[in-house]
Each structure stands twice: as C-alpha cells, then as structure tokens.
Amino acid sequence: HGARLFTGMGRENEMTPEELFAWRKAHHLTQKGLAAKLGVNPQTVARWEWGIWPITQRTTLQLRSLERELA
Question: Fewer CB within 10 Å: C terminus or N terminus of the chain?
Fold first, then answer.
C-alpha cells in the first residue's frame, strides 16, 4: 500500500499522531477497523491520533506486525 510505518529516521520505536493517521489512511483503515485489528476501542485510536494518549512502544510493535500482514 505504499506508506511505510518506519522510515529509517532513527525513531523506529516512536510514532507521532500524524504518522499514525497517515499510515492508517494509506492502508485504507478506519479508526474502527484499525481498533478491531489491534484489539482496542475505536476511541483509543482517536485519542492516539489526536495526541491525547501516547502511542506506546507496544502499540508501535503491534503496528509493525500488522503492516507486514497488510503488505
């Protein structure tokens, strides 16, 4: 799908809310769809994207695995 989660910018264990939003859109996932794949509430995804809650390393690792599945 093109958008890679990790761009080699030395931040492989960090993800900004903007990067999460762009990644989700590039993979044609709604907040609800991404939440279902991660086993979280859709409001959690929204809070990550709005910068209300931090995107943890655990979540980043889950996204890395999901990206491989979607490739």
Answer: C
